[in-house]
Structures are given as C-alpha cells and as structure tokens.
C-alpha cells in the first residue's frame, strides 16, 4: 500500500496503521512461539482465514485515491484486525529464554515481506495510473481527429443544403405554373360536368317514367300469375289432403285387420290350449274316479290298510292334477274370450266412428282404450287373478295403441 494511502487511512481513524503493525508483530510472536501440538487444526484455519480477510481489506485500500479513502475501507480493516486479535487471544503462549529473539527475527522477516508486497502493489498501481494517462492522451488525439472530420462533413452538408435550397426554389416555381394550369383545367372540367349532369338528370327522369310504367304492368301480371298459382296450389293441396285421408283410412284398415287377425290367432291358440287342458282334466278325473272305486270294489274282503292308503293317495293325486288342469283350461278359455272380444271391438270400431267429428273420434278412442285395458285385459282390476300379461298380449296391446293413435 502506498504511503499516501496509509496516511489517508490513519487520518480517517487515528492510530489504525500503528495498531495493524502491532497486531502483525503480535501475530508473528504468537504463531512462532506456540506449540503446534496444543492446537487443533480448526483453530489454525480460523486464524488463517482472519489474516486473509485482513489482507483483502488492506488490498482494497490500494486502489483508492488517497483523497477519497472511504470510511467503509477503514471499518473493514478495523473489523478484520479485531477478528485476528480475537483469534490470537485463544492461542496458548509458551515461556522460553530465547523467544524474544525468535519473535524479533520473525517480525522483521514478515515486516520485510509485507513491505515488499506493499511496494509491489504500489508499483502496480503506479503502472495502472500511467496506462490510464496514456489512454487519456490517445482519447484526446482521437477527439481532435474526430472534430476535424466533423468540420469537414459539416461543410459538405452545408454545400448540399444550399444546392437543395436552389432546387427547391426551382420546384416551387414549377409547382406554381402547374397549379395555374390545373386550376384552369378544373374550371373547364367543372363546366363539362355541369353540362353532363344536366343531360344525365333529364335522361334519368325519362328512364324513371318508363320504369314505373313497365314495373306497374309487371306487378299487375305478377299478381294475376300469383293468384292463378295460388289456386293451383290450393287445389293440389286439397287433392293431397284427400289422398292423405284415403291413405290414413287404408292404413287404419290394414292395421285394424292385422291387429284383428292377431287377436283371432290369439283366440285360436288359447282355445286350443283350453281344449288340451280340458281333455287332460277329464282324463285325470276319470283316473281319480277309478282309483276311488277300486277302494270299494276290490277282490279282497279285508284289504290291508297300506293298500287302502296307497289307493286313496293315488286318487287324491289324480284329483288334484285334474283340478289344476281344469283351472288352466278355464284360464285359457277366458283369454280366448278376451281375444275374441278385442277382435270384434277393433273390427267394428272403424265403421262406427268414421262419420263422427275429430273431437268425437278422439273421445271414442279414449273410451274404447280405457274399456279394453280396464275390463277386457284386466277383468279383475289387476288385483286378484291373472295380474300379469303374456308376451302375446303385450304385442297385441302395442298394435292396438298404434291403431288408436291414427
């Protein structure tokens, strides 16, 4: 560090330089006389780190101008010196007869080494200042050359501006001449346009009159054609509606016939099933009767009770099965009658309501459907016997609903 920098630092904090020198001497004394075996490695590392921070703080003061040494540099040096002193206070001291001589030699060696470092740093600072001064001279020379170039370019630009001014004056004169010619041309064009506008207005008025006359004739003809087309369309619509009604009647007839045939087939199937169950009931009843008669007209005068019980059980079994067959025959017979009744209702419904109004027909359909569902298909209200429908009945009911929607 340069002497003037040391003086500036000492002026900011009176005695800081002497304290740093004394601290360095004390550091050499402690480290030279201490027994390394008594110290942990971490303690040595902490002291080395504190000395390194003090060295950095001193080197930071080298780059400052002596007249601008900041208090932050002084504070940094003071803090680093205090940290070194704190670390040294924890080192053990060794008593000896020759320690003063060792300390003196070590202090002299370190001071010379530190002084050499400060001298080298000061020389480097001087060389840096000389380089900066040389750069400043080069910048001044470059500024002089640049000013000459600027003056030269300024003269050229002024000459070019004068030339452009002359050209602009000539163009202004030409523009005035052209403006005069344009004004005259505009006046002549305005007169011609006025004449053309008058002629165009007269021709437009004539065309408007002709267009109104022609459009009136076209409107009248269009109204006549529209009325004729409307009458034709109404006639065609009436024919289409008649055909639709006829198609509806045909569709209803086909649907009614199909549904009636389905109910007829259902009635036949139920009649066939009823007859089959009836025959089975009769046959089983006969067998039950024969089994019962055998109890009274057997060959043995004193039959065993086991034989009597067996014959009685057989008679009862045949009788029970015959009863079940009879009930099934009756059930299928009721289904046959229901299907026949539905067939007759569907076949007779169309002719009876054909001449009624649309509202009356809808009411009649609702009553017929209600009657069919509540009386014919569910004769017991759906609470006692036959509470469910077969798949054939569900299909027939679907067809019936489609028929009555039309």
Report on the architecture of this protein.
By secondary structure, the chain is mostly helical. It folds into 2 domains: 145 residues, no CATH class; 165 residues. It contains 8 helices and no strands. The longest helix has 198 residues. It is flat, with a radius of gyration of 67 Å. The N terminus is likely disordered. Keywords: Coiled coil, Membrane, Transmembrane, Transmembrane helix.
Low-pLDDT runs: 1-13, 64-69, 380-389
Largest sheet: none
Question: What general form does the structure show?
Answer: flat
Estimated share of beta-strand residues: under 5%
Query: Which class best fits the helix and strand makeup?
Result: mainly alpha
Integer tally of domains? 2
Q: Give the proportion of residues in helices.
A: over 70%
Radius of gyration: 67 Å
> Cα distance, first to last residue?
118 Å
Oligomer: single chain
Helix count, per DSSP? 8
Number of beta strands: 0
Order of helices and strands: HHHHHHHH
The average pLDDT is 70
Short description:
Keywords: Coiled coil, Membrane, Transmembrane, Transmembrane helix. This protein is mainly α and about 400 residues long. The chain contains eight helices and no strands.
Sum up the structure in keywords.
8 helices; disordered N terminus; mainly alpha
Topology at a glance:
Blueprint: H1 3-12, H2 16-33, H3 41-60, H4 71-88, H5 99-296, H6 305-353, H7 358-377, H8 391-405
Helix pairs in contact: 2-4, 2-5, 3-4, 5-6, 5-8, 6-7, 7-8
């Amino acid at each position: 560090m340069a002497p003037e920098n040391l003086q500036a630092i000492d002026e900011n904090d009176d005695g800081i330089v002497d304290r740093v020198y004394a601290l360095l001497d004390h550091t050499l004394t402690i480290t030279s006389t201490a027994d390394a075996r008594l110290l942990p490695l971490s303690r040595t590392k902490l002291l080395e780190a504190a000395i390194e921070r003090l060295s950095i703080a001193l080197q930071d003061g080298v780059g400052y101008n002596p007249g601008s040494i900041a208090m932050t540099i002084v504070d940094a040096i003071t803090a680093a010196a205090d940290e070194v002193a704190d670390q040294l206070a924890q080192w053990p001291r060794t008593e000896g007869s020759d320690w003063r001589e060792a300390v003196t030699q070590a202090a002299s060696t370190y001071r010379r080494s530190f002084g050499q470092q400060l001298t080298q740093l000061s020389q480097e600072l001087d060389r840096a200042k000389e380089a900066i001064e040389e750069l400043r001279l080069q910048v001044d020379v470059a500024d002089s050359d640049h000013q000459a170039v600027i003056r030269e370019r300024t003269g050229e630009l002024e000459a070019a501006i004068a030339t452009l001014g002359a050209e602009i004056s000539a163009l202004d004169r030409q523009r005035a001449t052209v403006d005069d010619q344009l004004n005259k041309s505009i006046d002549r064009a305005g007169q011609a346009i006025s004449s053309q506008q008058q002629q165009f207005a007269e021709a437009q008025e004539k065309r408007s009159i002709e267009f109104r006359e022609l459009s009136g004739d076209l409107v009248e003809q269009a109204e006549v054609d529209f009325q004729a087309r409307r009458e034709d369309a109404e006639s065609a619509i009436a024919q289409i509606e008649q055909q639709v009604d006829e198609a509806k009647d045909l569709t209803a007839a086909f649907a009614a016939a199909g549904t009636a045939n389905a109910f007829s087939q259902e009635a036949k199937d139920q009649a066939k099933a009823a007859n089959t169950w009836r025959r089975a009931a009769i046959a089983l009843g006969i067998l039950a009767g024969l089994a019962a008669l055998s109890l009274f007209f057997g060959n043995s005068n004193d039959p065993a009770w086991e034989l009597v019980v067996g014959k009685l059980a057989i008679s009862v079994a045949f009788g029970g099965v015959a009863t079940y067959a009879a009930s099934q025959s009756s059930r299928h017979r009721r289904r046959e009658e229901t299907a026949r009744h539905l067939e007759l209702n569907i076949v007779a419904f169309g002719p009876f309501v054909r001449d009624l109004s649309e509202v009356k027909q809808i009411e009649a359909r609702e009553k017929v459907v209600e009657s069919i569902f509540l009386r014919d298909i569910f004769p017991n209200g759906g609470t006692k016997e036959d509470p469910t429908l077969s798949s054939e009945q569900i299909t027939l009911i679907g067809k019936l609903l489609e028929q009555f929607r039309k």
